[in-house]
Design brief:
Elements lengths: L2 H11 L27 H21 L15 H11 L9 H11 L14 H15 L5 H13 L36 H13 L7 H12 L32 E3 L5 E3 L3 H13 L7 H12 L24 H15 L3 E3 L5 E3 H12 L17 H21 L4
Antiparallel strand pairs: 1-2, 3-4
Length: about 400
């Protein structure tokens, strides 16, 4: 597998209250299968479980003989993310025989330094594996989990945590400070690696006051288009988030120019939800100016039709909005559950129960065999990957409905 394709694959792997019940299913989009109408949180949760059951059955049928879900050239994160979809469902446990076999496959990739990876893109792989091991609740994996956490701490750009290699130590003025990149080989920090690493720290039980979260706040603040708090000269003011601070964005295709000649780096959906979620994990409240700004961007750009703001585009997806769509759904669901506000009021004053609408969307998009599949960009044309993302998103929506059924 060439390095470009591997990078794309691992990058892929890598809430005001409605007064009346919300109608779950409206008329399907052109080409979609008809769906039953469901109203209210209880019915939405039941529909979600039926959809999840079908998706998990697809994954189980496609488990490899060696216990994993990755093809020969795929990274171990593919197996980790599939296992996580099972162990987050109440009907499965990490001790189930087929999941024990999968976890054994995953652990075969742990290196002496604690990383869980088969290549130099170790941050994504290790972080996703940590989240999976934590969620599996298997005591026998605690030593391996601790080793992986030690490794993950060692690849954060900062200068205050003991044990960080000299090559990762940078002062707070460095744009990479507090972020995570692809590993310890000098690659600049980015928000996708960073949010995945912070998910892992959260899932492993670290508290907001942990030095890793507090260092991350510096990077997160600099990845936000919010000039009131961002000290980078390029910062705009829409409140959304970009991919990378050090190189000012993921792609020139995401840049645009203001009338005064300044180049602004375009905020987009998956990174804005990643930024909001990560700031909450680091202890920021709804009253923080950065959180308020991110929430404003979300309400003004609410959609499940696309990953809003993404303008890469190619022959398969000229508008770009389907790029990383299932990654977007998963990040959105986890972020909105963390934020704790089930109903979003958009820029037109329309209220949206994100949990109900997400269940609607993903149930409608599920294939007859139980899978989901996206476009080739970032390898979401791999059904196992897109299916795992969709299931994790649905499980977040289910959990929020259980926690706040009447909101």
């Amino acid at each position: 597998m060439n390095s470009t394709r591997r990078l794309m694959l691992v990058s892929a792997v890598c809430a005001a209250t409605a007064a009346s019940p919300v109608v779950l299913f409206s008329a399907p989009q052109q080409g979609g299968a008809p769906a039953a109408k469901v109203a209210g949180a209880a019915d939405a949760a039941a529909t979600a479980q039926a959809t999840v059951d079908k998706g998990l059955a697809y994954l189980k049928q496609n488990q490899q003989a060696d216990g994993g879900w990755q093809a020969a050239a795929d990274p171990p994160a593919i197996t980790a993310i599939a296992v996580k979809a099972f162990v987050q469902d109440p009907h499965f446990k990490g001790s189930d025989a087929f999941l024990e076999k999968a976890l054994a496959k995953l652990m075969a990739f742990q290196k002496p330094d604690g990383s869980i990876s088969d290549d130099n893109l170790a941050t994504y792989n290790t972080a996703i594996a940590i989240s999976t091991l934590a969620q599996s609740k298997q005591d026998k994996y605690k030593p391996a989990l601790e080793k992986a956490l030690t490794y993950l701490r060692s690849v954060q750009w900062q200068d205050k945590i003991e044990g960080v290699p000299a090559k990762m130590k940078v002062p707070e003025t460095n744009p990479n400070y507090g972020g995570f990149g692809y590993g310890s080989k000098g690659a600049r920090a980015d928000l996708s690696n960073s949010q995945t690493a912070l998910d892992a720290l959260k899932d492993a039980g670290l508290k907001p006051e942990d030095p890793a979260f507090q260092a991350a706040l510096k990077f997160l603040t600099r990845a936000q288009n919010h000039s009131e708090t961002n000290d980078q000269k390029w910062s705009g003011d829409d409140g959304g988030f970009i991919y990378s601070v050090a190189d000012g964005g993921a792609s020139k295709a995401l840049d645009y120019q203001l009338p005064d000649g300044r180049t602004i780096h375009r905020s987009y959906g998956s990174m804005t939800y990643a930024g909001l979620k990560s700031m909450i994990y680091a202890g920021l409240s709804h009253d923080d100016a950065r959180v308020k700004a991110a929430w404003k961007w979300i309400t003004e750009n609410w959609t499940l039709d696309e990953n809003p703001g993404v303008k890469f585009g190619d022959a398969n997806n000229p508008k770009g909005g389907d790029d990383g769509l299932y990654y977007y759904y998963h990040t959105l669901a986890r972020a909105l559950r963390a934020y704790g506000e089930p109903v979003i009021t958009d820029s037109k004053g329309v209220k949206h129960d994100w949990r109900v609408e997400l269940i609607q969307r993903l149930t409608r998009e599920q294939k007859a065999d139980g899978s989901w599949v996206g476009i080739q960009k970032w390898m979401e044309n791999k059904p196992v990957l897109s299916t795992a993302y969709a299931l994790l998103a649905l499980e977040e929506a289910q959990a929020d409905l259980k926690e706040h059924p009447a909101r």
